[in-house]
Specification:
By secondary structure, the protein is α+β, with helices and mostly antiparallel strands. 33% of the residues lie in helices and 28% in strands. The chain has one domain. The chain is built from four helices and ten strands, in the order ββββααββββββαα.
Length: 188
C-alpha cells in the first residue's frame, strides 16, 4: 500500500498509532488512522511534541505532569488532549529510534505472537503486529489507564467543586430596603 505523504500532522481522535519507518537514510513516520494512513517526514516523537503544542501544552509539561500525577519516570504515557481522550503511550524509550506511539483509546485487545512480537487489535477491527513484548503492551496499557483515571478524577472533582460554588445559596439579605423609607418619617 502506498502511503499518502503529508507535510504537517497533529494527532487527533482518529489516530491509532505512529511508528517509525526508514525512508532512504532518514526516519519518517507511518501514521495509521481509523480509515487512513499517511507518511510524514517527521519522526514519531516530533509529531507527538507538535501535537501537544497544538492542544496547548508542551511535551515536557505533559511529561512532568504525568510524573507528578502518577509517579512514572520511564516510558511515560502522554495526555496529548485529555478533553478529547487522546492518550498515547510509547512502546520503548521515546528517544529510541524504534519507538512506536499507540493510542490507548483505540486498543481493543492484544495477543502474544512470540516473546518479542504482539498482535494488537484496534476498535475498528484492524490488527497490526508490533515488535514489542506482550508484557510491555500490557504494562503500558495499564499505566495509561491509570493516568487517564487519575486525570479524569481531578477534572471531575473540579467540575463538582465549580458546580457547588455556583449552586450554593446566596447571602440572605433583609427583605426591607433601608433606602426606600421616606426620609421625613425617619426624622420623626
Amino acid at each position: 500500500m502506498k502511503l499518502r505523504q503529508i507535510e504537517e500532522y497533529e494527532v487527533n481522535p482518529y489516530t491509532m498509532f505512529i511508528k517509525p519507518i526508514a525512508y532512504g537514510s532518514k526516519i519518517y513516520s507511518e501514521i495509521v488512522e481509523v480509515e487512513d494512513e499517511f507518511l510524514s517526514p517527521f519522526k514519531p516523537l516530533d509529531i507527538i511534541r507538535t501535537s501537544c503544542e497544538y492542544y496547548g501544552c508542551d511535551y515536557e509539561g505533559r511529561r512532568n505532569g504525568t510524573k507528578q500525577l502518577v509517579g512514572y519516570a520511564h516510558k511515560i504515557p502522554i495526555a496529548i488532549d485529555p478533553t478529547n481522550r487522546i492518550f498515547f503511550f510509547p512502546t520503548t524509550s521515546p528517544n529510541r529510534q524504534e519507538c512506536i506511539w499507540i493510542s490507548h483509546e483505540h486498543v481493543k485487545d492484544y495477543d502474544r505472537i512470540n516473546p518479542q512480537e504482539t498482535l494488537v487489535l484496534f476498535n475498528n477491527n484492524q490488527s497490526f503486529k508490533f515488535p514489542i513484548s506482550y508484557s510491555t503492551i500490557s504494562s503500558q496499557l495499564e499505566r495509561t489507564a491509570y493516568l487517564r483515571t487519575k486525570l479524569m478524577q481531578r477534572i471531575e472533582f473540579n467540575e463538582r467543586k465549580s458546580f457547588y460554588l455556583l449552586q450554593r445559596p446566596k447571602n440572605i439579605e433583609a427583605s426591607e430596603n433601608f433606602n426606600t423609607y421616606d426620609k421625613e418619617k425617619l426624622k420623626k
